């Protein structure tokens, strides 16, 4: 699902709200999550999961083509940990409804 599909679904379920207001609400929610992560805060959405930031220290990597050592700068990366309700829903009955089920190797039927 992309952002415009989310906005459309919310608009369909809430005909009393203007489409432009729903777009603004969704944008504000995403912006607040981004701002909180940029400050180093953790964002928790009960039943869904938690967003946090992980520090990746500087290290020495290798250029895969030449094998030459390459310095990789430190960086901060967003991290998402799913909540128990989301994991249960994904692993319980009715998962992948409307989509092709995947076999044990991750391929569709």
From TrEMBL:
<keyword id="KW-0810">Translation regulation</keyword>
<comment type="function">
    <text>This protein is one of the two subunits of integration host factor, a specific DNA-binding protein that functions in genetic recombination as well as in transcriptional and translational control.</text>
</comment>
<keyword id="KW-0804">Transcription</keyword>
<keyword id="KW-0238">DNA-binding</keyword>
<dbReference type="InterPro" id="IPR010992">
    <property type="entry name" value="IHF-like_DNA-bd_dom_sf"/>
</dbReference>
<dbReference type="InterPro" id="IPR000119">
    <property type="entry name" value="Hist_DNA-bd"/>
</dbReference>
<comment type="subunit">
    <text>Heterodimer of an alpha and a beta chain.</text>
</comment>
<keyword id="KW-0805">Transcription regulation</keyword>
<dbReference type="InterPro" id="IPR005685">
    <property type="entry name" value="IHF_beta"/>
</dbReference>
<keyword id="KW-0233">DNA recombination</keyword>
<protein>
    <recommendedName>
        <fullName>Integration host factor subunit beta</fullName>
    </recommendedName>
</protein>
<dbReference type="Pfam" id="PF00216">
    <property type="entry name" value="Bac_DNA_binding"/>
</dbReference>
<comment type="similarity">
    <text>Belongs to the bacterial histone-like protein family.</text>
</comment>
């Amino acid at each position: 699902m992309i952002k415009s599909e989310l906005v459309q679904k919310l608009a369909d379920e809430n005909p009393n709200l203007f489409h432009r207001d729903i777009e603004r609400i969704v944008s504000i929610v995403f912006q607040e999550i981004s701002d909180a992560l940029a400050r180093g805060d953790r964002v928790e959405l009960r039943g869904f999961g938690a967003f946090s930031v992980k520090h990746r220290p500087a290290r020495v990597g290798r250029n895969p083509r030449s094998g030459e050592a390459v310095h990789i700068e430190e960086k901060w990366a967003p991290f998402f940990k799913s909540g128990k309700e989301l994991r249960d829903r994904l692993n319980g009955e009715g998962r992948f409804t409307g989509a092709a089920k995947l076999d044990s190797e991750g391929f569709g039927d």
